[in-house]
Amino acid sequence: MTKMTLAAVAVALAGPAFADGHAATGDADAGETQFNRQCIACHVVADPDGNVLAGRSARTGPNLYGIAGRDLAAVDGFRYSDSIVELREAGTVWTEAHFVGFVQDPTGWMRETLDNGRARSKMAYRVRSEEDAMNIYAYLSTFGAAAE
Length: 148
Hints:
- The protein has a two-stranded antiparallel sheet with strand order 1-2.
- It has six helices and two strands.
- It has helices at 3-13, 28-38, 82-89, 96-104, 106-114, 130-140; strands spanning 44-46, 52-55.
- Helix 4 (96-104) packs across helix 6.
């Protein structure tokens, strides 16, 4: 079992879950700090009315509003990699385990998840700490349908 797989299993088994089964075990307050340090250069959290709730008006990456429990590659108008679209078409949703694995090694996670050595992600940045990744997911989980 790879380190990434072990981490995903540990995350899936740990902590409380949302009503829809998408666990968030991190610290949302710490996640806000990490989001502002690591994510706002490329991502924004904007509600359906266009109100920016977190970040700036960054458009390099997709809007992260409602990411918890959302289908992968679900933001209309964003140009995703073929690999993440393939995962969406297979019914993959953003769980804490998927988010943590992806943000720590986007292309590596894609290749492992799809079992395809040629799979690629457009996201080049990596969140180095698993704890930071879990905290960012907990923070992002406070925005959108899963949090409501």
